[in-house]
Amino acid sequence: MSEKEALLAAIDRDRDEIIEFLRGFIRAKSPNPPGNTQEAARYVSEFLDAEGLDYRIIAPNNEFPNVVASFAGPQPQRHLVLNGHIDVFPVDPVGWTKDPWAGEMIDGKIYGRGACDMKAGTSASIFTYRYLHRIRGKLKGRLTLTCVSDEETLGPWGARYLLENCPEVRGDCMLSAEPSGKNAIRFGEKGLLWVTFNVRRPGAHGSYTHKSESAIKVASHIIADLEALTNIPPNLPSDVEQAIRNAAPAVEEIWGNGAANIIPKVTLNIGVIAGGLKVNMIPSHCRFEVDIRIPVGIDKDEIVTALNRIVSRYPEVTFEENHFTAPAFCDPYGEMSELLRDNVKQLSDVATTPIVSLAATDARLWRYRKIPAYIYGTPPVGIASHDEHVSIDDYLHVVRTHVLSAYDYLSRDEPPRVRDSISGNHN
Ligand SMILES: [Zn+2]
Description:
Blueprint (H helix, E strand, L loop, with lengths): L2 H11 L1 H13 L10 H14 L4 E3 L7 E7 L5 E8 L19 E2 L2 E3 L3 H20 L6 E8 L10 H7 L7 E4 L7 E6 L1 E10 L3 E2 L9 H12 L11 H9 L1 H8 L3 H4 L4 E9 L5 E2 L2 E10 L5 H12 L5 E9 L2 E2 L5 H14 L4 E5 L5 H6 L4 E3 L13 E3 H18 L18
Parallel strand pairs: 3-6, 3-7, 7-17, 8-16
Antiparallel strand pairs: 1-2, 2-6, 4-5, 5-18, 8-15, 9-13, 9-14, 10-12, 11-13
This protein binds zinc ion (ZN).
């Protein structure tokens, strides 16, 4: 029996344990906000304790602890990091037909908040760590596990803190099991820029339209002008551009019709608007908030320049930035991407496609540092919504894929392969 066959046999043997671990993990509530992950971190550390695996709790904020474990094989060749978050979205009880915190198992599915985003994924990382630790004497490099808090709010206490303050968690490559879908390997993510606009005009009686422009009308003109942002073309290495084009069918399978069209484009959502006091008064103030999603290959500066150009056409209009996350990507055909592709093909005969995704994850933080970071996880079902669940088959498939791919990565003799020509946005 080969080493990989032995690993698969162990996963089959431990099937019930792997399933029960996830169910218990869901019961260890960790909604964010408020974001307290103490119970979930305790759950992970108790498992590591029982397995005799060393770890550290790194908690720059007491309520947001991170669990970090690491071991090295006999030859220090390469360093793989398995990262998963332990916080989950909060629950709006409307629409739930199952208890979001019970980890119920019904018809081959496990239900609950975080079932797919991403306690199934973080469980896959934890089991990958456990299985590879058992055969560490045969591995060529180091494996690090980071179970982090504070991902759902893109907050400062989780992966961001670790990458800034603990260089030992950076590694040569990061692998995460955030949701992706069986046919997709995520190599990049769009960024976002949230901006608030304020329009001021003198205002007047509603019949005196010769006295003052309406702040609401000015806002509507600006909103129409903002559509120009969607025409800014991305600038990408040609094979990344090609990969994004090739990914269109896979992207639409995951996110529905029209998703492929917006992956390489700036999109705009006017999420909040407020202005005016009374129907017969010309409004003197209008405020609106815009969620701008930035594709890979466009810098924030280009967006801000375009915003300044638009606003300069309107006196007494200001805008301010509220939040920014740069888009990021790595080599769509990098080493780990190929290992995932080959293992998925062997395990399930499914062909995978490297894709850029719509929403941001912690993977971007590794990519900002030019460390390739890939995501392969379960399909996104009910994320941030109701009746979130994961099928047990999909969950076990992700466990197998991660165990085998991490094993392959840490079994190679040569140093990690990184193409310097490919790098993410770093602004
Ligand atoms: Zn997530």
